[in-house]
Specification:
- This protein is 26% helix and 36% strand.
- It has seven helices and seven strands.
- Strands 1-5-6-7-4-3-2 form a seven-stranded antiparallel beta sheet.
- The N and C termini lie far apart (33 Å).
């Protein structure tokens, strides 16, 4: 089961550096965030559809142990480079074949696209929906001048029936959300 605190602790000494998280039921999320987060689908496909652009992955940091590969990432629109999602991903490579592992470690393609293109039998299981008050690092990564709020989720991807991928996914605030002003649209 993806534990929020454990995923955040992979890359942050204090969760407050990333943000403050409050679990919310889907009905309490604004409708655009319900559509973006309250489902059992890959976020890669969801944000591409929502933003009308394919996305690229930018790996900010990674951690590798004997059992796990974890990375802190941004998804950016190919159309203009705008950041559309922050994520922390932790994988158990034992549940994925070697070709998939090599492609993930190459850091050039979003995880969802890799799994889809390799035809991995997968099931995305939504765990928690989160209201997120961004901390200093998330504001910096999203190019935001103030810390309003956005939304995210924790999820688990089962690959070929095995719990292979834990996820924390936080979407960039939508234009016009009060309290959150973008300093720039692309990076």
């Amino acid at each position: 089961m993806p534990e929020l605190d454990a995923l955040v602790a992979l890359f942050y000494n204090s969760p407050a550096e990333l943000g403050r998280f409050v679990e919310r039921p889907a009905a309490e999320l604004p409708s655009v965030y319900q559509k973006l987060l309250a489902h059992n689908h890959h976020m890669t496909v969801t944000v591409e559809r929502h933003h009308g652009s394919l996305v690229d992955v930018r790996v900010l940091e990674r951690r590798i142990t004997d059992d796990h590969y974890a990375r802190k990432i941004l998804l950016t629109r190919q159309a203009d480079g705008r950041v559309v999602q922050f994520g922390i991903v932790r994988l158990i490579f034992a549940y994925l074949d070697e070709a998939i592992r090599r492609e993930i470690e190459a850091q050039a393609t979003p995880l969802g696209r890799i799994l889809i293109e390799h035809n991995v039998l997968r099931e995305v299981e939504l765990f928690k929906l989160l209201e997120v008050t961004p901390g200093p690092d998330l504001c910096r990564l999203f190019g935001a001048s103030s810390s309003g709020r956005t939304y995210g989720r924790t999820a688990l991807i089962h690959c070929n029936g095995e719990p292979a991928v834990e996820l924390l996914e936080i979407v960039t605030p939508e234009a016009g959300d009060s309290g959150f002003e973008a300093r720039n649209s692309g990076r």
